Amino acid sequence: MTYQIDPKHSSAHFKVRHMMIANVQGTFDSVSGTVELDSAKPDSAHLDATIDVNSLHTGDPQRDGHLKTPDFLDAEKFPTITFRSKRITPSGGKNYKATGDLTIRGVTREVTLDVEGLSDEVTDPWKQQRRGVAASTRVNRKDFGLAFDPDAAMVSNAVEITLDVEMTRAAS
């Protein structure tokens, strides 16, 4: 079955330590893509997700603008972040590990997402079949060319990434 990621009910979040004293969080509100899923064999699933870098917001327009410059994400040259799974492995209950290629700023690295709580399918009032899932990982920002740091103590290299995804498919 092919599910479409519902961009109106999905988002990607990040969290990074600022000045090593507090976390700063941000959200990308535009997440799209597809999930191929066989309920009988969830480990054969395939995830293909795209995040619009220009949908970023952190609650501070000046910081948002700076994060979109060549100092960090370079949104003009690299307008999307993508994840394409290569394999899915069960990790207990409704949890999985999704290993695949994450591309940020034109740099691709293999990462593993911890996928938690794949929901059962439900039918919404408009006869769409829906499921939801959350996934998270931690990356080193410098591995993706996000190396701007005039003062090494300003921003941690470790970035926590969380995806909250709702997906739909047409009713059979």
Secondary structure blueprint with pairings:
Blueprint (H helix, E strand, L loop, with lengths): L1 E4 L5 E8 L3 E7 L2 E6 L9 E7 L3 E2 L3 H7 L12 E11 L5 E9 L2 E10 L5 E2 L4 E13 L14 E16 L2
Antiparallel strand pairs: 1-4, 1-12, 2-3, 2-12, 3-6, 4-5, 5-7, 7-8, 8-9, 9-11, 10-11, 11-12
Explain this structure:
- This protein has 172 residues and is mostly beta strands.
- It is 4% helix and 55% strand.
- The chain has one helix and twelve strands.
- An eight-stranded antiparallel β-barrel has the order 1-4-5-7-8-9-11-12.
Helix content: under 10%
Compressed to H and E, one letter per element, the order equals: EEEEEEHEEEEEE
Radius of gyration: 17 Å
So how many helices?
Answer: 1
Query: Which structural class matches the secondary elements?
Result: mainly beta
CATH superfamily: Lipid/polyisoprenoid-binding, YceI-like
* Average residue pLDDT: 90
How do the strands line up in the largest sheet? 1-4-5-7-8-9-11-12
Distance between the termini: 10 Å
CATH topology: Lipocalin
The oligomerization state is single chain
Number of domains: 1
What is the class in the CATH system?
Answer: Mainly Beta
Number of β-strand runs: 12
Q: Sheet with the most strands?
A: 8 strands, antiparallel, barrel
Ranges where pLDDT stays below 50 over 5 or more residues in a row are none
User: What's the shape?
Assistant: globular
